[in-house]
Amino acid sequence: SPQMRFILSWLIMFLSLKYTHIFPPPCNPLTPPPPSLSLQWEEISVMDERNTPMRTYQVCNVMEASQNNWLRTRHIARDGAQRVYIEIKFTLRDCNSLPGVPGTCKETFNMFYYESNNANLWFIKESQYIKIDTIAADESFTQVDVGDRVMKLNTEVRDISNLSKKGFYLAFQDLGACIALVSVRVFYKKCPLTVLNLAQFPDTVTGGDSALVEVRGLCVNASEEFEAPRMYCSADGGWLVPIGRCVCKPGYEEHKDFSCRPGSYKASATDAYCTKCPPHSSSHLERASECVCENGFHRAETDPRSMACTRPPSAPENTISTVNETCVTLEWSPPRDTGGRGDITYSLRCRKCSGDDIKCAPCGSGVHFVPRQFGLSVAMVMVTDLQPHSNYSFTIESLNGVSDLSPTPRGAVMVNVTTSQTVSVVLKERRSKDSITLAWQGPDRPNGAIVEYEVIYYEKNQREQNYTVLKTRSNVMTVDGLKPGTTYVSLFVSSSHPVSTYPLLAPQGLFFSYLCFVFKLPGSKTYIHPHTYEDPNQAVRDFAKEIDASSIRIERVIGAGEFGEVCSGRLRLQGKREIYVAIKSLKAGYSDKQRRDFLSEASIMGQFDHPNIIRLEGVVTRCKPVMIITEFMENGSLDTFLKKHDGQFTVIQLVGMLRGIASGMKYLSDMSYVHRDLAARNILVNSNLVCKVSDFGLSRVLEDDPEAAYTTRGGKIPIRWTSPEAIAYRKFTSASDVWSYGIVMWEVVSYGERPYWEMSNQDVIKAIDEGYRLPAPMDCPVVLHQLMLDCWEKGRSERPKFGQIVTTLDKLIRNPNVYILSCLPSREDPTTPEFSVSTVEEWLEAIKMGQYKENFSSAGYVTLDSVLYITISELVKMDVTLAGHQKKILSSVQSLQTQGTHVQV
Ligand code: AMP
């Protein structure tokens, strides 16, 4: 039967008559047998149906009333079971089948038990027994041949539960029936030993009163718990509700012979199968939990075991060094062999070399690396604060996650550079048609006393073959005999003595400073208006170089122009270094006129060649979109740049910017080009703070400039920047550009303040007409304001020419003590204040980058520690895209690294 299937172990306590004391030995004086327990149950041998002799206990005192005959088993050990089953087989005579029996004849008997720890009780009082049941024959008269009689064999099963003592005694009470007890089987049920989900559950005795027994399984060999395995053993011996499981240990799988074969592995305790060793690794033995890397290959601690073994990268390639005086930019391409990893970083070693036998020693802490020296994730670094006129050797090492594990030398490349220090030319003045006067400043930190300067110059197109050398001890030189309209390259060489040997003229002790300087003697060249061309495309062809679109890589959008987006990107022309460029594109759906106007900017710009005029690299007109490519100005437009850096520059720096703009404007006016929209928003600033005049489109004043307003005469004019005569009768000349230049001066010195603040255009026109002029901005040296006022002379011929403006500014720069520093404003305080900061917010505030607080916190940079190794690309990701801001943040990070939480601002 299904139930019997669960009876997996049973204990037969066959009631062997031999061992059953119906009457305990009478020798125990304390418990004499009660008189009622007479010898009524008899042990009798009979034959069963197969004629095998069998012993039965019988009682059949049906003829006498008041029967009370007891038959008792020996002590039956409980064996841990709480519930015990008793199966009895018996025959019971039907009273009716016995002739002449009185009414006292019974057809039932009672079954009792008594729990006890004592296995040797010979006497148990009737009242101590607990009744199990009254047993009646249900199958009367089953045919069993017992000798000459036919008997019926009954089988009854009862159970007793919640047993707790060592064992128990069973007893049968006859009250006057005719019974033959054939067998008594006592058993309990167990849940059998079983293995499920790789956990073994032991033989478990079922609980009492149908309670479930919770059993914890044990993981079988080579397996371990994934989740504690448990099951419940039910009262009828079945396992229920399996929970949890074990899984094969590393190196084993639940498959055939359980072990991973050579060449395969299993890294963790999971129910997955063994897998093939990843590339560059193998396992030679069975049961591998990981594969061993081949020679020369490694696995970093954090690499997953499933990852291929990797090796250190090869050396960086294509190193380019750009020396800018005492600052070197090193760039390189990533190693050809990455070693199979993506975590390449670079580290630099810097050594300073000297002497004929080239002795090199570590550079020490005075040299700074931007963004950092070690663990660089970009293939570029800027090294600053080098000594001038020195040789340096940089070793650029490429590293990855396994470099430290490899005993072989690392992929490294060496770059040698020589630093310089230049003189800076501050004045260039044309004396006559064929001569020019050059004046310059000596190097800031000469390596000794300057002995003399050499000026070497040659015509740009003639290369160096035909050069002239002039020598002077002073800082001024006039060069005669030049050809008008020709571009010259001049080289300044300053020779100086090392301080120790001064004043002896020992040639081996000379140091040289170089400055390469290009100047052009203005000749007859004037600007040609693109409208003078019948075919405007010809103007583009004449003045702008066609660039193949494939040499341009657009990287990101940096602004919006009148005709479409302005992007930044890179340009790599054959045989030239890759450079950063700005790319203006003409949006789709343009008309012919729009295309002409768009390209007119290129044909105008292409005619200019001056360090303070934005340089045209070329145009893309043969494919769409049509693009204008110019040099990239990292700091964007001047007005925004100044607003961002309010108060951060010295007056000399501001004057330097103004000098650049004036110089660019002088060049334009020399070429008879009138800009008409000179304003700080149309000046671009590069990473060296060089300002360049931009925005040359033909339509610009009319359409492009948001500041332009319609005048009563119909044109659109940027009122605040425009001279009265240009507003009144459109008299645009270089003199009106000078007026605008005065406004730009005011914008620069006031760090991007709006001219005339919130006054309306009408009020501005009226005020100017009544003689009102913008007052000096805060901290503005008197000389500068005077120059502005000169630019704003009502009579345009009274205004200075751009050439004079440049001269005036040069004078200021050369003699700052006289003109500027004598009225040193508070912003000129040369001491750099130090702040102690403890949070990212405080730090950003201290370095005046508070506007990025949210960018930092939402990118997860919440502690100062976390910003210590921030990179440019991370800054870009957080929208810190301005090169100046990036530089400021990174150089402050560097000082955080070296000086802890004292931040210089
Ligand atoms: P534009 O159409 O010339 O007024 O240019 C729109 C904006 O794009 C400017 O305000 C600048 O922010 C940016 N831009 C234009 N040209 C350059 C450049 N050469 N380098 C960097 N940014 C530029």
From TrEMBL:
Annotated GO MF terms: ATP binding; transmembrane-ephrin receptor activity
Protein name: receptor protein-tyrosine kinase
Disulphide-bonded residues: C60-C178, C95-C105
Species: Hucho hucho
GO cellular component, one term: dendrite
Primary localization class, coarse: membrane
Domain SAM intervals: 835-899
GO terms for biological process, alphabetical: axon guidance
